[in-house]
Here is the input.
Amino acid sequence: MTNQTWGIYNLFAMWMSNVHSVAGYVFAASLFTLGLAGWQVFSALLVGITLIYFFTNLAGTAGQKYGIAFAAFCRASFGVFGANIPSMIKAATATVWYGIQTWVASTALVVVVLRFFPDLTPLAKNSILGLSTLGWVCFAFMWFAQLLVFFYGWEAIRRFTDWAGPAIYVIMFLLAGWIVWKAGGFSEISFTLHSETLSNSAAVGMWFTAVAFTTAWFAGTTLNFADFARFLKSPTAMRRANFLGLPINFTLFAFAAVVTTSGGLKVFGELITDPVELVARIDNTTAVLLGALTFMTATIATNIVANFVSSAMDLANLAPRVLSFRRAGIVASLASVAVTPWNLYSNPEMVQYTLGTLGAFIGPIFGIVVVDYFFLRRQEIDIEHLFSDDPRGKYWYRRGFNPRAIVALVAAGTLSTLIAQLPVLHNLAAFSWYFGCAFGIIFYLLLNRRPARAVEPATDLNRTDSQMQAAPR
Here is the structure.
């Protein structure tokens, strides 16, 4: 069992680090491209993050109670070996986003380098696999910096997020204040940035789409939240920290993002969704340096928390005798380069619509593990059996795999993928996480109308074979 030493502030700071990233700001600002007004974007962000607050509490309950990570939690529903299936799906998603976030952070470093060394501009003009020479150098630097923090272990990660999360608030509000000042005050800022006015029904539909996008944006961290909840001292501390770190913290972040994006249109005459580009346009070199470095730090913290940890833990669970936590981290970081993330993250529309696809299997996994734990298992897990590969164990099922969970995942994942990708269902793509979650719950419950072996009374693994054969069944 994990040493549960985290308090409310530690998790609160982790959420601040998770939220306050360049990619998070770009995501929030890009919701304006849906045609919504500022207040509509703001309210959609708040409703979405409030839903995430409730989902996260569900996902973290078992992790906090038993001190177990997400990969171990999945064993109860998918089997001791079958748990590798959802773990690898999560690891693949996290690895891609790890690469994207690393590249996004490196763009801030490019801004700083060019500000102080303008003679290097030619190195930013060429292209090697879609990235300039300077871009490659900055990407490599950010990649190594994150690996260094990761290598010092969980305590180093906690200390890093403890100060990195709050640091971005200083820059975010200074940037928002500067934008308001340059615009001539709030009265001079228009919070209606779209070029066409949506009808009431269309606006409502787009608002719900924005809520769904917000849920999908945090779906990955929500799914593996047990990785962090296992460190919390109590369930009360977990819930309070989640409340501060999600609805409260995100309200401030969303407000700053909406004001800065809306004011940026007034100040610069164009819609700028990238805070690094906004910072780069400030005349003061010191302000540019501090702003870019702060966004870099915040994005590193986000990346480690939301993606690096998840990838490493899930990969380590796949082959624990070969891959330690650190070795798995190296594998994940190398894979993140191989996907050339800068080619994936090319425009706001792609960011939005890939979220639906990424949520296609994340949703079903969430639905299955949560309904299994709360409804079928009544919040009770046998830790001894959870970490046993003995065929007599409760979570052995069939050769270590639970066919019912796997069938439910494949069926639900296939349907939610069709919703995410078929052009005819394009209007529902943003809701693929919700559809996937609902399908996963329905299929899993239908397949478990008869109790599976794993929900029967525990088997004593210390009993002999003859005792097992003589025991009533």
